[in-house]
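[stage:ingest] chain + small molecule (adenosine-5'-diphosphate)
[stage:ingest] validated
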Amino acid sequence: MNEPPKKRVLSGIQPSGRLHLGNYFGMIKPAVELQNQADNQCFYFIADYHALTQLPDPEQLRSHSLEATLDLLACGVDPEKTVLFRQSDIPEIPQLTWILSCLAPLGLLERCHSYKDKISRGFSPNAGLFNYPVLMAADILAYNSDLVPVGKDQKQHLEVTRDLAQKFNWQYGDVLVEPKALIRDETAVVPGIDGRKMSKSYDNFIELFGRDKTIREKIMRIQTDSTPLEAPKDPDKCNVFALYKLLASQEEMEEMRAAYLKGGLGYGHAKKALLEKFQEYFAAARERRQELARTPEKIEEVLQEGAKKARKTTTTVLEKVLKAIGIR
Ligand code: ADP
Ligand code: TRP
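[stage:predict] done
[stage:export] tokens:
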């Protein structure tokens, strides 16, 4: 009997800064778990063209791309099981982006929250930033992706992708696969140290592999309310607890919850406990990362090998797309 076809899982991460706890729980951890299930075939990439919309410094773009690849490998992305590559090594992506741009209504892109949010924070809106969701749709559709593990902030971009796939298929015949977003409720939005969504573009993130001193300082700066030490506290309203519960075991989490409710636990203690959990949780990954960082040329090889495998799909999909639209 033939085996059922594997599900194609795909996700990307922007090398726009150091990766943080929000990236880890929103995308990296689910991505690694999906990679380790036999019925999936995973494609993960470094979205450097996306980062270019906000990162004009060539040295930074280069070094962040390497760092982000190291972070993914250290966290368990395994190039033996997964196709790991860099977006810009796939020439079919900008080609498909152009084709999809010609189908994308301006209104659809104008409604995108992430674009509106960046404008409201004072970014000057270059055309790349505006077209960002179309580039993301090309990323997803060029690989016939079925499932896309992401944090909740990317939900709307997945809806745009599905819209564009439907529009293309309706206009030109069934060529593109409609993907589904995979968003886990419990880690949909990981809060930053100020309580807003943790993000590289706010200064509220806790880096996965930052210096010990920086991580300690960040954790000690997590915003809490002014409930006195001896008073009972609501764990569900506390940013420290929200992060602690991601890192702790069920039992440790319940103990901490009880200590909050009972009173007598200061936020300083809770922060110390969080720091310890953080260090314990990422200790092995941290070691792996140091090891990997010694041979950056091997990282480049992994990415080149990944790009070769990835292009097997993108060249086929693009060929079909070009035929369908009348260019071949
Ligand atoms: P950032 O907002 O820091 O620039 P990216 O946009 O590169 O992060 O996101 C990479 C992946 O990590 C995406 O799947 C995104 O949804 C996820 N992610 C980012 N921040 C968070 C967060 N605070 N909570 C949950 N997921 C997140
Ligand atoms: N836009 C995504 C983010 O900021 C990164 C990304 C680019 C992506 N292309 C993708 C995620 C394709 C999933 C699938 O997080």
